[in-house]
Structures are given as C-alpha cells and as structure tokens.
Design brief:
Radius of gyration: 23 Å
CATH topology of the largest domain: FAD/NAD(P)-binding domain
Strand content: 15-25%
Largest sheet: 7 strands, mixed
CATH architecture of the largest domain: 3-Layer(bba) Sandwich
Structural class: alpha/beta
CATH class of the largest domain: Alpha Beta
Distance between the termini: 15 Å
Length: 533
Amino acid sequence: MSGMRMVIVGGGVSGLTAGAYLVRSGHEVLILEKTSRCGGLVSSFQKEGFVFDTGPRAFGNAGILVPMLDDLKIRLPLVKGPVSTGIKDEIVHYDDRGAVRDYIASLKRLFPESREDVGKIEKNIIEYCSVASVMNRVPNPFIKNPLRDLRFLFREFLPWLPSFLRALAKTSLRKRTVEEALDALTDNSSLKDMVCQHFFKGTPASFALGYFENYLDYQYPLGGTGALPRALEEKIVSGGGVIVKEREVVKIFPAERKLVDRHGEEYPYDRLLWAADLRSLYRRLDGSSLAPRVFRSVEREGRRYLSALPGESAFTIFLGVDESPGYFAKISRGHFIYTPRSDGLGGLHRSRLEDLKKNFPRVSQRELLDWLRDFCERNSYEISIPVLKDRSLAPPGKTGLVISVLCDGGLFAMAERAGRLDELREKTRDFMLDALERSVYPGLGRKILFVESAAPVTLMRMFNTANGAITGWSLEGKPPVPSSLTGITAAVKTAVPGVFKSGQWSYSPAGVPIAILTGRIAATAMGRNGASW
C-alpha cells in the first residue's frame, strides 16, 4: 500500500521526523501544528541580537541524530557541545573520559567523611558509562538498517551486537531509580543530592549514572537548536509535504478516519500519527462509532493515560549580559550544570513541596518565599551559553545566558489559579539570579541588559501540555508507556484503529533522540500493509 494520506498532529521533532520519512516513502503527508511555528520545545529565538534556545541546550547524538540526518540527506552543520559540571567552586570540564575521575575527586574533596561511599558510587558510574558507550557507539539499527549496508553489517554492526545485548540485558534487568541505587551506596543525603538532583525524580540509575558518557556525545547545530526543526521542515516541504500551522485539532472520529480543527475544517486520513500529549488525544476522541470491543480497549487505554502523572517542568530565564564570552569561558564550557551549595535540596523538593501544594490556599506569602529562596539556593542549574558554541549568537563583546531549574509545574498552576503567579514568577527569577551571583557569577546583576523568563504555565499554554512537563510522563512509579528498548517498537501503537503515537509521551524517559527514534519507527509502522489493526 503506497501513497496513503498520512496526517500528523504535532510539529515537534518527532512529528517532523516521521513526516520526513513518510514523504520520502511517497505518501501524502499533512502536518497540523497548533502553534505558529514547528519544533515544539526545540526552538530558538532572537532578542536584541542575542539567540536563545528554548528547550534542550544541545542534542545527544546517541547513535540517532547524526545517522538520521545522514539517512535523510539533511545538511545541518553541527559542532561539539562541550559540558562542564560544578558544585560550589569544584568545576569539571568534560573534554574526554578522564573527566569522570576529576568529578569523583571533586566529590571526595567536598565529602571527605564519605570517601568510601564516593568510591562505591564511582564503580557504578564507570559501569553505567560503559553501558552508555556501547549504546552510543554504532548508528541505531532503526535509523541505519544494517541489512541494507553489508559493509556496515560485517565491519561494525555484528562485532558490536554481543556487547549491545549484554548492555541491554543489564539495563533491562536492573530497574532501579537513581535514588534507589544511591540509597544502597551511601547514607549521606547531601552526597546523594549532588549526584542526582539535576535529573528528574525517578530517573533510571542506568541512565543517570551513565550520563557522564553522554556529555561527550553532545552536538549543537550552528545557528541554535531551532535549526534542527527548520531543517526537517524544509525537507518535508521540498518533498511535497504540507505543514499547516495554527491549526488545533478538537475532534477525532476514528471510525470515519477524519479530524476536525477549531475552525470546523475536516481532514480525512488513512493513517494518523499523534505526536503530542496523549491526554489531548483521548479527550478529543469520539469513539462512539467504533465496534464495542474496540471501543472498550480504547476506553481502557485512555483511562490509563488520563490518570497517569505528568513529569516535572522547568523555570527558565534568558539573560542578555554586557560581558564578553571570554569571561564565561574561563569558568565553564558552553553547557554548564552547576550547584551553588553542596547540602542539596533534601526535603525541599519532596515533603515540604508536597505540604505547600496540599495547603496552598492557606500558605502565607512569607512561608512560600522562604521555601522558594531555599529551593533556589540549593538547587542545580542548567546553564547554556550559546555564544561559546557558535560565536554568531550574541553581539560582539556580549553574552547570552539561558538558565533553567527543574520545578513542579503543578505549583505554578496552583499559583495562577490563586492569582499569585506574577509574584511566584518574579521571585523565582530573582532568587535564581541571586544564588548564581553570590556563587559562580559575582557582579552579574550589574551587567544584565535584559531578562526574560518562561514559567511552566508558559509551556502549558503554548503546547497544551499537562503541568508543563518537558519530557512526558513522571518517572516516579511506572510510566504508562514502554521504558525499555526491548519494547520500543510497541511504543508507537495505540488501541485506536489507524492511529499511532510518537514523541516524548510514547516512551519514557524521553528526549530529542527518543523523539527522533519513535518518529522513525512510527513512520515505518504507518507505511506497512495491515497497519490499521
């Protein structure tokens, strides 16, 4: 079956990847994007000559990004996205694999009373970095099919396969979160926080402790991260695909194979890919004409997604700074994970946060701000300095900074309903800047030219995303989607006839490589005969 009408809802990286592959296969492709631009969380914007990235600060290749660009013959100039990490004044630059030893040495200096525990953590980090190295070494076979390239099959893929299977078994059998793994290695709560608090709560230990290997794998597109969705968009349009923006789908009739947008316009389809929040799929679904047995399956699946917990969000500030890039280059590389204090968040991000949310209507201003100040002082920051990766991304002699902190989007949603959002947004921004000025960037406040901020509610409004979640489902408990590579082909299926899914809501944990991979797998599944089970 060829030349089918494929409709994709969601013009993020996953939907665009699927669209590019479906166009290449000769299908009629229509992408409906709710906002005025494609890319979703992956985007860049300009202000007063500065370029800022709104989502990921760089992309992990993971054997997926570069092979996908090569496979689709997309020319996108990439440079390395070097990383530094820092705790107080202990800063490590990840220019090669020896940086892990420097990181461990810094932990031993920061926590001399727990040197033996740090040694245990080191063994786990080395083990999981080895696993990550194996996973990243060869192009992913879903992107580069080894059966179509015999040279690749015999020289690279087959020699790599045994080590990959061992690594896959290791990650599949050990289903511990990073918090659980660290609990077994040390009783020092501050040490545990320093290792893991910049990851989402519940992140698998294999992913978090092996992430040091991924620091060496980061790629950054010249022009900013928004260059990736622009390149995919151009590929789709040049191949005959159609992308319609500012078109929000409000109703889906799977029995009739059609969609309806907010303006009442109808879109027939042979196959539909939902590359957006899965809650919105089931809230818009009219399954009344489906066969009873199918309807019951769809209803069960919808309840599972609608009741599941969304993941954490982020608060981000964008700074134009009247300071040369050289000043910042002396401190870190262009991607910087930094923690001003070594005592960690502790209960601030757990029990105290839950108490605040539970009692929010009765929480005083002082109580909220005291918690928020501590939260910002003890947290870990992801800082991106685009001009250190691409010199064209800031005016001469000036520097742009993108500074983010993980946070609970539900708290900001509560603040908005209570009329306290402006205060929470302003104080979060001020406390973040104060924490960094008193630690790694002294005097920063005097050199700021402008400040912009984006709270979780910004993401909720723009992308119709529950709690402003930035990587899909919460990793605490059991996400309602596959979380092992052994089940990734099933990640794109739904119980709805003719409807597929991809992106951050289809697999967990998710990032740009998973968005690309699920988009590619979905395109393959959609193009098969009999795909409308």
